[in-house]
Amino acid sequence: MKDTYTLPSAADMHVHLRNAPGPIASLVTPTIRPAGIDTVFVMPNLAPVPVTSVNAALEYKSALEAIDPSVNYLMSLYLHSSITPEEITKAKNAGIAGVKAYPKGATTNSQWGVVSFEPFDEVLKAMEREGVVLNLHGEVPSDSKEGVTVMNAESRFLPTLRSLVGKYPKLKIVLEHCTTGEAVEAVREFEENVVGTITAHHLSLLVDDWSANVHHYCKPSAKSPEDRRALLQAVVSSKGKFFLGTDSAPHDISSKKGKGNTAAGVFTQPYALGYVLKALEEGIARGDISDSDVTDEALAGFFSGYGRKFYGLPPSDKKILLKRDGATVQESLKSEQAEIVPYRAGEKIWSVEWL
Asked: Which first-to-last residue range defines the signal peptide (predicted)?
């Protein structure tokens, strides 16, 4: 790998910014653009009320723009029983980019989520007709009776993905935050209207890492060395089937280290591109990928071009400069109301400069 890369500005097609206005959004949102990212696809799983209407999505967007108006926020709706085909048409006209489906009970704020896709048939047909993206959290809930744990929850979801593709063949679908070789192969089975996002942290983490460190715990969870290798290879050979969606998920430190179960989520927003490049470096050292795989074209596509094209956006005309070991990850982001610990805190990381 080179010591510097000059690339188009990045698009992160899966971010969690939390309620805005709010203490976490106020800390996290200003870190997007300094990370070399000017476009983000914002998740709708807010609490206590998820984003289930166009009006709510537009209000949320305005609140984020009040924090940092220099970022292009692509908004989404939460797939919910209250959503109608008419709301999908309204969403398309309002520029809402997608509808996120959370299996009920599978992850953070998924208590309002989907048990079956059958009741949403007319909504999904409207999405297929209007070109609105279906964003899938690709897991089934853990179930000891059925033998489902965090380690096989994604694999168990793949028949549902195949069923949806078969029933709605022109529906644009994103299998979000792929974590397994099986998921990568599943995405590759289908036409160009079915793609996957890959996070920064899943390119380096393994199950042993999150089982020992609460700041590495997320849903879906990191898996095996073989799965990590498949993700790294998908990044450098994407050709449009995979692009960056960090699933950066900030939680106050009290939710990570307080009483009760730890919150699921890894916070990567401020150093997202650097984490990916660091993971590629480490992958080369292990022999998971070769140095020649990491081309400017592959990086530009994964970070920027492929995601923008899938969502119907023009290519970026802005440039960023990334430098090896040019920055150090902060120990935490703090305000009077919140403290968030970023991934790989204290480590050297690639820096980003706008050109």
From this structure: none
Question: Which residue in the list 12, 16, 80, 223 is annotated as catalytic?
Answer: 16
Residue type, 271: Y
CA 159 to chain centroid: 21
Amino acid letter for position 18: R
Active site residue 251: no
Alpha-carbon distance of 354 to 339, in angstroms, equals 27
Q: Out of 12, 38, 227, 247, which one is annotated catalytic?
A: 247
Helix (H) or strand (E) holding 189: helix 181-189
Band of pLDDT at residue 143, cut at 50, 70 and 90: confident
Beta bridge partners of 148: 143
Question: Which residue(s) pair with 7 in the sheet?
Answer: 320
> For the segment 183-216, what is each residue's pLDDT rounded down to a tens digit?
999 999 999 999 999 999 999 999 999 888 999 9
Give the number of C-alpha atoms closer than 13 A to the C-alpha of residue 214, restricted to the C-beta side: 16
Tell me the Ramachandran region of residue 344: left when phi exceeds 0, alpha when psi lies from -120 to 50, beta otherwise. Answer: left
What pTM, to 2 d.p., does this model score?
0.96
Q: Is 68 annotated in the active site?
A: no
